[in-house]
């Protein structure tokens, strides 16, 4: 969910674009709308679990006075969750193989701004589940027109290909941009948060196959003026692995085992898997327009830097897992025969043996293959990964994202908070779904790696830490979108007289390495560090904003 400070930043950005007001021009020639920024629209693509889901069934719940009727809230109604959890699960779970609904209950995403403001409206639950409510309230207070803000909710349980196959989501999103242009006379500004950035990326690739190549960039320039990526997990997030193996409750009153069953039924759970920046899929045009396009399969190629890099470029291994290995050796377990010897510890004929997996090995299926003999979900997860991602007809979403072909791109995220980057798992001795426990967690914090007990850990920490949910390595990937020379400005977040503003102009940007500002920080204050193109691609502008000690 979105923190309050991030909403403030987005509101300022929205006002800068002048939705419904005079506006401030920040680059480009103004396009066909003649620089009249009051004609712009704002389109919001919410994040994971940030859209209300409503029942589209009649479900009688035994032993509970509360039933589910059409249009009743499913995500999120904590009252029904507490009083009729088995009924609630029927309405929220999907079949892990074909992503269909439970035979007795189906849920669909709500529509409009109300679908993304509060997930569980109410005196107590409303403020706890508020997502975009305050942001929209501020827009109203500043005079933004009602038709200038458009939400595009989606069923965040589905993989990208299923969003289109079941709901025609990307067709509808294309129509939304075209309707906004016709209604207000100007292009739109996209505000995407968390998983919403992955959704927008997929839309841009899907659009390539819907529009003739010579008209693709023309359509983008006509319909999208700028893109704001907020808290974007551009290279994934390790807590996806934690949710898949041990469950993530979202703060709900359910057990981790129940949360794991729920998470692993969703095709979208793998959409934010950690991935290597050195491995890419084949080009979408080559796949669709070359000869022999039978079954869709994205070849997955890694550069020579992948085997040379530690941990696929991440700070540490994403997953370390203990598995029982008998004296016969790992050959007794076919799924482990493909796991490299380097992943095994030096224990000989002992119990247990620890396997370690990098980001590449989590996203390419090695990890799930390795646990197939130890976990009932292993084969299902391998199936989902292959069918819904590696064989996606548009692109393999588990590959690094190049700069989107939008005129102006802002990438905004929080930094320097304690963020999980790796996990140690061991068998719990309990039956599925509680068969794994987390024995240790590795965190990044301000350039260091520490364990759950507070001890320093070896690895390759970055210059900063993440936003509490997504590590810095993933959030800051958009720095690679900047031009060859960058202007850097660091300023206090609070009101200031300008004496503490630091500026460094025309800094060389080697895209293979992170940009490290030669600047200082006061221990008493929080700063915003701005990275902006000094030299950029003609007609394009990119900016990255890092906010100290803020969630995104």
UniProtKB/TrEMBL annotation:
Gene Ontology biological process terms, A to Z: lipid metabolic process
Question: Domain of life, per the record?
Answer: Eukaryota
Supply the alphabetized keyword list: Signal
Check the UniProt entry and state the signal peptide residues, or none: 1-21
Q: Does the keyword Signal apply?
A: yes
Which PANTHER family does the entry mention?
Answer: LECITHIN-CHOLESTEROL ACYLTRANSFERASE-RELATED
UniProt keyword Lyase, yes or no: no
Q: What name does UniProt use for this protein?
A: Phospholipid--sterol O-acyltransferase isoform X3
Q: Name one Pfam family in it.
A: LCAT
